Amino acid sequence: MKIINLCFSRRTIEEIISTLVRLGDGWSFDESEALDKKDEWISSTIQSLKKASPTSLKISLRSIREGRLQGVGSCLVREYQMACHVLRGEFSKDVLEGYRAIFIDRDRNPKWEPSRLELIRDDDVDRYFSKIDDEDWEDLKLPPRLDLPRYAIAKL
């Protein structure tokens, strides 16, 4: 848990990966606690992050961070909006490329665009959190739940 908190409390996905890499190379955040260079969890986590779409990593991290401060209803609306942008492919075709690499060609070698984290600007990520610019498109609207028992109401 200490390693997870150390790594995933970083501000950006680049910093998260960098911290994982340093830990995998034997860097220790606590002198009394030596890390095994062959830590399987760290290695597999680095590999998973490096294989993933750079755009999806940045979008996901931002969504998780924003979700900490929101209620469930707001999170569902935000996630729906993000998913709609992703599936519409207006800003990136990474979902289609991932399907191609896994299900169609089965080469498991997606060509992400952009291909590196540093090529994705904050305003690129912002677009996934914006209202969909289509008059025929409706945002998710959750019905009000006035009949919930007191214990079921979010405390945050």
UniProtKB/TrEMBL annotation:
GO terms for biological process: L-valine catabolic process. Residues 2-129 form the Enoyl-CoA hydratase/isomerase domain. Its EC number is 3.1.2.4. One of its GO terms (molecular function) is 3-hydroxyisobutyryl-CoA hydrolase activity. Keywords: Hydrolase. It catalyses: 3-hydroxy-2-methylpropanoyl-CoA + H2O = 3-hydroxy-2-methylpropanoate + CoA + H(+). Pfam families: ECH_2 (PF16113). Pathway: Amino-acid degradation; L-valine degradation. It comes from the Eukaryota. Hydrolyzes 3-hydroxyisobutyryl-CoA (HIBYL-CoA), a saline catabolite. Has high activity toward isobutyryl-CoA. Could be an isobutyryl-CoA dehydrogenase that functions in valine catabolism. PANTHER family: 3-HYDROXYISOBUTYRYL-COA HYDROLASE, MITOCHONDRIAL, 3-HYDROXYISOBUTYRYL-COA HYDROLASE-RELATED. Belongs to the enoyl-CoA hydratase/isomerase family. This is 3-hydroxyisobutyryl-CoA hydrolase. It comes from Solanum stoloniferum.
